[in-house]
Write a structure and sequence with these properties.
35% helix, six-stranded mixed beta sheet, 10 strands, alpha/beta
Length: 232
């Protein structure tokens, strides 16, 4: 289903990116001339104190916000050169998101949440069913496809979110504090699950995290301070 071999092919390139937020007359420099490349197959954690720019970096790579200056490329495509519709399509097709608050649609079942991106893409019903059942099985939710988010534990909801994130076979999954709202045992299981997806299915992960368990198991750790890379 996905490329299982790691390569030196750049999935994300961040070139001299700065991000300034203006609050009245106050300027907050969230990123300062940031340079970072993520290659296919990486399992990488962005770490650093609050305010270091981790979440801002993920939001910019995901096209949820735009840099004040600099360039961001996803699979060679300059996000800044895309119109709103093109950017929306790139996010849908090439970028998966896992948020700490899960962001599942409460009226939809686990199956429907996982298939949503493929439904928007126009994937046939038969292919959607095949892929969703495969993914729910892969994340340990076989037999729970008809449950709505309120009928699932926090860890199970995050597993649905992970299945949804990889359903469209994205170039990269951006995971913002994915273990923040679950207990320690569940966090360990989620990290193991994402490791397995990275190893067995070649899914590229870029995390923003304070969780030492994610940091210890990441293959690459990028330390950020004051909007810059301190150590990569």
């Amino acid at each position: 289903m996905m490329n299982e071999q790691r390569s030196d092919e750049a999935v994300v390139e961040i070139r001299s990116v700065s991000k300034v937020y203006r609050q009245g007359k106050l300027e907050v420099h969230a990123l300062r001339s940031l340079d970072l490349t993520v290659t296919r197959g990486e399992f990488t954690a962005l770490v650093g104190p609050s305010g270091s720019g981790k979440t801002t970096t993920l939001n910019l790579v995901g096209g949820l916000d735009a840099p004040t200056s600099g360039t961001i490329l996803v699979e060679g495509t300059d996000l800044g050169a895309l119109g709103r519709k093109e950017l929306s399509q790139l996010r849908r097709d090439r970028i998966g998101f896992v948020f700490q608050s899960y962001n599942l649609i409460p009226v939809l079942t686990a199956y429907e949440n996982a298939e949503m991106v493929m439904w928007v893409q126009g994937v046939s019903a038969g292919e959607r069913k095949k892929r969703v059942m495969d993914l729910l099985g892969a994340v340990g939710l076989e037999g729970m496809e008809d449950r709505r988010p309120t009928e699932l534990s926090g860890g199970q909801q995050q597993r649905v979110a992970i299945a949804r994130a990889i359903a469209a076979d994205p170039a990269i999954v951006l995971a913002d504090e994915p273990t923040a709202n679950v207990d320690s045992e569940t966090a360990e299981k989620l990290i193991s699950l994402m490791e397995q997806l990275n190893r067995d299915r070649g899914v590229t992960f870029l995390f923003s995290t304070h969780d030492h368990r994610v940091v210890e198991r990441a293959r690459r750790v990028v330390r950020m301070v004051d909007g810059r890379v301190e150590k990569a």
